[in-house]
Amino acid sequence: MDNTPPLSGTNLIEAAFLAKDQPVFIVGWETRRILAVNDAVYRVFGWRPEELRDRTTEMLHVNADSFKRFGSISETMLQSKRDTFHCSTRMLRRDGSSFDTENMLGIIRDRDGTPLAAVSVVFDLSEGSSITSPAEHSPDLSLLGDHLPGGVFQRIQRPNGDILYNFIRGDLAEQFGIDPEQAKSNPELVLNRIHPSDRERLMHSIDQTGKTLSILDMELTAYTANGEVRWLRSISQPRRLDDGSTIWDGIFLDITEQRSAENRAHHLVMHDRITGLPNVVTFEERLAGAITNAAAENTFLVVGALDVSRFYTVNESLGFQQGDDALRKIGARLQSIYNGNDIVARYEGDEFLFMAQNLPTSDSVRRLGYDVTALFDEPLELDDGALLSVSVKVGLSVFPDDADSPDGLRRAADLALQRVRKDPDRNFEFYSAKMRQDVLEAVTLERELKQAIKDGAIVPHYQPQFDTENGNLCGLEVLARWPVEQGGMVSPGRFIPLAEETGLIHPLMEHLVDSVLSQISQWHREGFLVPSVAINVSAHQIRHHRFFDWLFEQLSHYDLGIDALTVEITESAFLLDFASVQSILEALANRGVRLSIDDFGTGYSSLSYLSQLPFQELKIDRAFVSEVDSSQRKRAVVKGIIELARALELEVIAEGVETESQLSQLKILGCDSVQGFHLAKPMDGTSLTAMLPPDERKR
């Protein structure tokens, strides 16, 4: 049976301030992340408040079932339309020990009644604890408890309208400088302490309850003797005397701390913990109102989604404390160009949202992109004096042109951000209808790609590589091909980037590599000599350590040596995280894996990194090969690459050879091997079999 006193979620916050010996948690309703705790949490649970903030309460439960059950109780609260609940559960201390508890839960709601957070008071029922049951402490949790700061009074109104306070007792009388004896004959002493904005409301409530004899319960502000403003709650029950007089027996409660707690809890729920900026919930609320205003005033409204480029490197190099400081400085920069009607919010990670209102012309809309990105031309100055240069990408959407709802404008801005992220030459992009069409096509393609991988419809083709000295077949490169109906092919330029973005690259690569190894094994059984087969491994695969473990297992499964494959890696795979990739590549090289750097010369730091990585082969990108016979500048670049490779003892292969003239120039420049349509197009395994020489060792 639930004997919990009937408290509202708001009142439970007030009561929690009195429960100084009991742990108090304020927890996000949807996320179940801890927003705030009191000091008693450390004594009972062993966790310091700062160690718990922004972590879920699952760590305080003995197991996942207990955590889920607690969540179910919360849902029960909603279904029963109660704002408070009482339950028992077993909880976990930091040292791993468990103990019995009873919990009082209350809901904090927004103005629309939507749950924002929960406040929970935990009572330790373990042996040796001074607390045995929350029921024993119901006086401490009652709004009319003796220990709440406040006062009691009796107000009398005679039939002729005369008013007097028969008595006033308690802390508030002294705090507000009210002499009880003087108040008996001069009720204005009490009324004058009430804030002018609340006096008329109070007198109206007194008049109404005097007629109906219903309970008066209201909140108001008042001045203390030293001029401080405090929040009070007045609760009184009127009754009628035989002579027609009305008496209000009541109390005043000082709820200033409660109000502060509500404000803090509401702020935590509606604002980002690190930057103090509004969060996405607040942003969308404000955006809905801004759309209404823009429609009424016939002005433009711009929504922006901002991403800080490569921000993860700040956390990795400077630490999370400096990273958080940088986020605060970025938020402050954005706020510097917006007026009071606009809003800047932190979305998540290194992404921000902003809204600019009352833009009168399309020119002012267009200038906004330049204004925002220009904010970061100068470096940020962190709290320790360090200067940090950052660059940003911004996606922008416009009301009413792009959408007419908060969700639509945000999605449009996000699509624009996704597009500009892929463009190294631009810092901002406005949404266009084509972006939506591109997204719809990408969604369809992703669905078809998943099915194609599942069905094994994407197959390996092999492009031969030839020795420039003797013309012999010296290698093969695997290329993914996706045949479709009526003899067509889906371009790898469409589905490979999509696979990398969606994570489908992992199952796709495993399918392709398994097919390749199976084919190599079959060729060996048929007596063919198979040169090393190159597979192109993306940055996603390199960081997916399990891929290489799986690769070695598959080589063993097909009874193939390490030399059966060459692993090709593009420059972009190691430019963003050199140290990590270097470690992985060195481990592969130590296992005997042949490594090739693909598309050499298209990155930004090739020369500085090349000598530090264990490559054995370098591939010259087709961008240089295409004009090696017609451009002296391109020929000089290719010559320089080949000479560099010689100095580093690397073999050189040129890709994209399409004419005899290109082939001749590459031979003259000393290129070791070549591949391209002029020599042989990519082909399936069956067609390639005719090009393979016999393995004389097996004859």
Q: Which helices and strands appear, and what pairs or packs with what?
A:
Elements: H1 9-18, E1 24-28, E2 34-37, H2 40-45, H3 49-52, H4 64-79, E3 84-92, E4 98-109, E5 115-124, H5 138-141, E6 150-157, E7 163-170, H6 171-175, H7 180-185, H8 188-191, H9 196-212, E8 216-223, E9 229-240, E10 246-254, H10 256-270, H11 280-297, E11 300-308, H12 312-318, H13 320-335, E12 343-348, E13 351-359, H14 362-374, E14 380-381, E15 387-388, E16 392-399, H15 406-421, E17 428-430, H16 433-455, E18 459-467, E19 473-483, E20 489-490, H17 492-502, H18 505-525, E21 533-536, H19 539-543, H20 545-557, E22 565-570, H21 572-575, H22 578-590, E23 594-600, H23 606-610, E24 617-620, H24 622-625, H25 632-647, E25 651-654, H26 660-669, E26 673-674, H27 685-689
Parallel strand pairs: 16-17, 19-21, 21-22, 22-23, 23-24, 24-25, 25-26
Antiparallel strand pairs: 1-2, 1-5, 3-4, 4-5, 6-7, 6-10, 8-9, 9-10, 11-13, 11-16, 12-13, 14-15, 18-19, 18-26, 19-20
Helix pairs in contact: 1-10, 12-13, 16-17, 18-20
Jot down its keywords:
Beta-Lactamase; alpha+beta; 4 domains; 699 residues; 25% strand; Alpha-Beta Plaits; elongated
Computed over alpha carbons, the radius of gyration is: 36 Å
From the 3D structure, determine the CATH topology of the largest domain. Answer: TIM Barrel
State the CATH superfamily name of the largest domain.
EAL domain
CATH class of the largest domain: Alpha Beta
Structural class call reads alpha+beta
Question: What CATH architecture of the largest domain do you see?
Answer: Alpha-Beta Barrel
Q: Report the end-to-end length measured between terminal Cα atoms.
A: 89 Å
The number of domains: 4
Q: How confident overall, as mean pLDDT?
A: 83
> Major β-sheet, in short?
8 strands, mixed, barrel
Strand arrangement within the widest β-sheet reads: 18-19-21-22-23-24-25-26
Q: Tell me, briefly, the overall form.
A: elongated
- Helical stretch tally: 27
Low-confidence regions: 1-19, 131-149
Helix content: 40-55%
What percentage of amino acids are in beta strands?
15-25%
> How many DSSP-defined strands?
26
Domain EAL: 442-696
Protein name: PAS domain S-box-containing protein/diguanylate cyclase (GGDEF)-like protein
Domain PAS: 23-61
Domain PAC: 216-267
